[in-house]
Every structure is written in structure tokens, then in C-alpha cells.
Task: structure prediction
Amino acid sequence: MEGLRYRPAVFLDRDGVLTEEKGYITRTSDLAIYPYARRCVARIREMGYLAVVVSNQAAVGMGLLPEKTLREMNEKLRRDTGVDAVYYCPHHPKAALAAYRLDCSCRKPAVGLFRRAAADFQIDLSGSYMIGDRASDILAGKRLGVKTVLLESGYGMERLEFDITPDYHAQDLREACGLIAGILQERGLVWEK
Result:
């Protein structure tokens, strides 16, 4: 389409990346955003990337969290970090609530949410990244064809359920942003904002 401008994105998992990994979070007040998250999202955007959260949220399907509360959490996350969008999957093949019990195309490591975000924001996947703390994040990124960064700030290497190798490792989102900035500088890339 004429007039559309594609730009890359940094896809971010929520827990262990932007927020503390605490297992199932069921109240907005328990959503503990890392103090550096807003600064990191600003840096991602300054580098010319969109910052898009893609998160599995099976607590909804398990009946532990109403979807309305999750939407409130997502709004808090957007407001407090400055991310461009939050996409989530409430499904799980073994969900307690029948309406959410399905093997869907949006639960990572599937790429349905990424594809939806790419269409919504005209994302150039060829220059994009996936940053996460679990193997499902890395596998989703590999399936999508983007570069992947595994963080140790969440589950990290201890929870690699799949035999998958990320493109890069970083301690936390701050280090991952520095890594991406270094790659851009090394390759002389500048994304148009």
C-alpha cells in the first residue's frame, strides 16, 4: 500500500523482562515493573523501534484472573513503561475455564500475536528482535525469523523447556538494549522513526 512506512520492533515478553517474574500475578497492585523499564523502552523507541509486548497470560484461562483485571494491568504497563502496545494470549490447552481451553495460534511459541502486531503496526520483521526469559519466547522469535535475546532477569537458562539457542544472552533489559544499540552502530543502521 502506498504511504505505509514499515519499521522494526522489539517484541518484549512481560514477566521477567519489564516486570518481576512472580508466577501468576492476579492483582494489578502486584505487577512490579522494573525501575529501569521505562528508560529502556524510551531507548528502544529512540533507536527507531516500536516496543511491543507479547505475553502468555494463562492465569485468565486458569480462572485466577478476570480478563478485565488483565486489561487494567496492561493499561498500567503501557502508561508506566511507554510501550506501544500489549498483546496477550489468555488460552491454555489445559485451562480450567472451557472458553479458554484451546490449543490456539496466539500462545507462544506460536506466532499469531506477533503476526497480528506486525499487521496492526506495519512492522518490518527482518530488522526486529524478540526479548524474553523463556524458551517459548526464543522459539517464537526463531519461528518468526527475528533475532532473539534471552534474559537472565526472569527464568533465563534454568527454564529452557525446548532445545533452542538464542542469538544473544543478556542479564536484563538494560543490557539487551545496549547490545542492540551496539549492533546498530556496528552495522551503521539507523531506523527512521
Q: What stands out?
A: The chain has five helices and six strands. The chain has one domain: 9-187.
